[in-house]
Amino acid sequence: MGTAKLILDGQEYELPTVVGSEGEVGIDISKLRSLSRAITVDSGYGNTGSCHSAITFINGEQGILRYRGYPIEQLAEHASFSEVCYLLIYGALPNRQQLEDFNEGLTYHSMLHEDMKKLFEGYPPNAHPMAILSSMVTSLATYYPNAMQEDRIDLNILRLLSKATTIASLSYKKSIGQPFIYPRNDLSYTENFLHMMFAVPAEPYEINPVRERALNLLLILHADHEQNCSTSTVRMVGSSQANLYASIAAGISALWGPLHGGANQKVIEMLQMIHEDGDNYQKYVDMAKDKSSGFRLMGFGHRVYKNFDPRARILKKAADEVLEDLGVNDPLLDIARNLEQVALEDEFFVKRKLYPNVDFYSGIIYSAMTIPTNMFTVMFALGRLPGWIAQWKEMREDPKTRINRPRQIYTGPKERAYEPIEDR
Ligand code: CMC
User: Mutate which of 130, 290, 302, 346 to test ligand 1's pocket (most atoms within 8 Å of Cβ)?
Assistant: First the structure.
């Protein structure tokens, strides 16, 4: 363990340092306030390590992403989503028997309690599926009140992973006024989701293997991303010992915002807008450079990646392949390619190290799979579930965990006397 020295108003303080397994160094300031009365300030937490974690490693300068040490490129090429869920949550790739048991659990917990259907009925027809997903995941806590019992955690993890796909697809069926489709036990996790989304009672539904593979890939690429906004929210809520369902529902709400998971919906809306404006992408690049316009290129930029987002690289290639395999010709793909080209050569974007992120091409693939635009962020949430669960579990099991409670620099008025209303 090394040390860092801090000189504050002439007084010197020694602070211990911590080093991660990939060599990144942190200065442990946990005792700073009791030693010096000073706190650190880091708006947006861009320079703050909130925990020790052995789940996901990112090197933003080099475009590296690994889950439990495995490069994302290898997992994307070889693994199934349920294998990745197991890896993230339990720390190692499952052997054949472990994977079979895990998949069986995912299959047999996919049904919702029939009473939950009444909750769906209460929403207006155009309710955003992210609002439904978040509320329904919280509602699961009412059906499984013993979720926090130590010997039931694994069971409830399976329930959550499995029932989330049922909730997501029912929220879609509800939005288009079609009857709910029940899960089938003979289908895999990803097949079952497609079946519940797209089957109709009147005719048999055949799962298209290209769609299923694309779904598997998209879910894997979204499965974890260390301490991002929604994951930090899950840990924050979980640190108060709120239950699993409530903590994950909070993460779903955080993900919904357009600067986070909501960006995938915004990207397609932006590309559509450019298309309707005569494919004039240069105009939108110029607008994004003009701060007064308030416009940003959605799907561009990242807090951590400053070279390229490895997930975006994989998805760009996949978008070409999936659209070709499905025989889809989407003009938005050409606009996205051109926009990327122009932005990557523009000094504004080069200087700020702004590159396409995971959300830039994902929406084009979802559209080709006929997943509607307002479901894109729900798809992100389904993918991110194992990451949230793994991080929640790690937080719970870490003896160093305390309730999360940042401090602040107060900038409001000093003490003043209450003024009677007639004097104001
Ligand atoms: N278009 C135009 N300018 C941008 C963009 C953009 N998409 N992103 C950042 N900038 C500029 C920004 O104006 C600032 O310029 P300056 O230094 O002159 O003030 C500089 O680049 C740094 O931006 P920032 O907002 O300080 O960076 P941040 O790390 O706080 O924000 C971000 C990261 C992802 C929220 C931001 O890049 C953004 O708003 N991107 C668009 C939304 C988006 O695609 N979000 C999905 C993120 S990836 C999936 C996920 O993790 O959820």
Answer: 302
Burial of 408 (0-12, 13-18, 19+ CB in 10 A): exposed
Supply the CATH number for residue 243's domain.
1.10.580.10
Whose alpha carbon is nearest atom 52 of ligand 1?
260
In a domain, 332, yes or no: yes
Is any ligand 1 atom within 6 A of the Cβ of residue 117?
Answer: no
251 lines ligand 1 (CB under 6 A): no
Whether 162 and 222 share a structural domain: yes
Question: If DSSP codes are grouped into helix, strand and coil, which group holds residue 204?
Answer: coil
Are residues 388 and 340 part of one domain?
Answer: no
> What is the average per-residue pLDDT within 27-43?
96
Tokens 């978040």, located at residue: 134
Q: Is residue 297 in contact with ligand 1, taking CB distance under 6 Å?
A: yes
> What pLDDT, on a 0 to 100 scale, did the predictor assign at position 204?
87
- Domain around 27: 3-59
Asked if residue 297 and residue 238 are part of one domain, the reply reads no
The answer to whether 176 touches 124, Cβ cutoff 8 Å, is no
Contacts of residue 168, defined as CB under 8 A and 6 or more positions apart, other chains included, come to 129, 133, 193, 197, 375, 378, 379, 381, 382
What tens digit of pLDDT does each residue of 64-113 get? Answer: 999 999 999 999 999 999 999 999 999 999 999 999 999 999 999 999 99
Q: Looking at the structure, do residues 209 and 104 belong to the same domain, yes or no?
A: yes
In this predicted structure, what is the pLDDT of residue 343?
A: 86
Number of structural domains found in the chain: 3
CB 383 less than 6 A from any atom of ligand 1: no
Q: Which residue numbers are catalytic?
A: 302, 359
- Is the pLDDT at 135 greater than 80? The verdict is yes
Model confidence over 146-201: pLDDT tens digits?
A: 999 999 999 999 999 999 999 999 999 998 989 999 999 999 999 999 999 999 99
Neighbours of 14 (CB within 10 A): 9
pLDDT band at 1 (very low <50, low <70, confident <90, very high): confident
Query: CA–CA separation, 133 vs 139, rounded Å?
Result: 10
- Cα(305) to ligand 1 centroid in Å equals 11
State the pLDDT at residue 281.
87
403 within domain boundaries: no
